Recover the amino acids of this structure.
């Protein structure tokens, strides 16, 4: 089969190589899947760079999220049949940027009929992250105001749709006019281009000085620091990640005097500590997809020859919505 593999870490365009390799075989508790589509995620770029918390042995194939058809079951796997269209996360080092990938049986879920292969490949990591951040951590309530940073990106776009589906008012922050159009198309009530506008002033004016009830922050750095200036009384800032590369040092005295909460969301930890929560979230997300309330925005569909450049552009912040690999 064909696979994009990393033999040494570095920038995606430098280290992702298209090669002919043997098909992987599923071990106990694993499923072999023929890849229909694989969404590109920021962790894929970090894996190429050797900067992700998981460091698979070299050489490896990135691609942590996919939609595909079950091809073979490993020992002890039941409950899913060959040919079933599924989605979920891949088991590295046999990731999804290939014709075939391996998945842990507990990370295999039925793909909603309402979504195309490209859309279904994008429903797992980003939307699960958004669901847990907004509903489990922030306890979002109908009518609240949610400030979403990087609202045109993979995780941010999911948060916009999920917040709207929950009945919230959404302020999306983006960088540039094209991303502003994307955030508006996703359903954000107000879109702020951080390059030309001050989101703090916009949020305060929109809420009559109260501020945002929930901040969804996958960026960190200045985005986090400035969010503390427009967080509401008893508001919740959910820290998703640090795409800016700058990990802020929160002023806990400020959180105290303004009565707001700083919440962390490492979605992958739920798979280890509370795995029973993942299928429930998938069921909720599938219901929303069937009702047309969430639909991953796929902006680009790339073949194997174009994928390294696509992963690089995502790493550099030059993409909108979801970039998807199609074998």
């Amino acid at each position: 089969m064909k696979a994009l593999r990393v033999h040494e870490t570095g920038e995606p365009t430098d280290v992702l190589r298209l090669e002919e390799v043997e098909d992987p075989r599923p071990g106990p508790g694993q499923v072999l899947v023929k890849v229909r589509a694989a969404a590109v995620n920021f962790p894929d770029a970090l894996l190429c760079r050797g900067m992700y918390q998981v460091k698979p042995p070299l050489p490896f194939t990135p691609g942590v999220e996919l939609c595909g058809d079950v091809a073979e079951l490993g020992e002890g796997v039941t409950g899913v049949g060959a040919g079933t269209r599924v989605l979920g996360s891949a088991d590295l080092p046999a990731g999804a940027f290939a014709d075939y990938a391996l998945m842990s049986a507990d990370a295999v879920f039925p793909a909603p009929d309402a979504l195309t292969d490209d859309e279904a490949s994008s429903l797992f990591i980003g939307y699960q992250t958004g669901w847990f951040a907004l509903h489990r951590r922030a306890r979002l309530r109908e009518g609240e105001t949610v400030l979403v940073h990087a609202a045109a990106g993979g995780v941010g776009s999911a948060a916009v749709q999920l917040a709207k589906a929950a009945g919230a008012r959404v302020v999306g922050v983006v960088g540039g006019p094209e991303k502003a159009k994307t955030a508006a198309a996703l359903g954000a009530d107000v879109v702020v281009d951080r390059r030309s506008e001050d989101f703090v002033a916009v949020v305060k004016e929109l809420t009559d000085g109260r501020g945002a009830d929930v901040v969804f922050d996958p960026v960190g750095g200045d985005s986090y620091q400035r969010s503390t200036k427009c967080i509401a009384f008893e508001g919740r800032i959910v820290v998703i990640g640090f795409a800016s590369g700058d990990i802020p040092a929160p002023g806990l005295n400020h959180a105290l005097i303004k009565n707001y909460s700083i919440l962390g969301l490492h979605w992958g930890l739920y798979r280890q500590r509370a795995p029973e929560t993942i299928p429930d979230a998938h069921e909720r997300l599938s219901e929303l997809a069937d009702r047309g309330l969430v639909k991953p925005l796929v902006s680009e569909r790339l073949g194997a020859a174009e994928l390294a450049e696509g992963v690089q552009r995502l790493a550099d912040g030059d993409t909108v919505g979801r970039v998807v690999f199609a074998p």
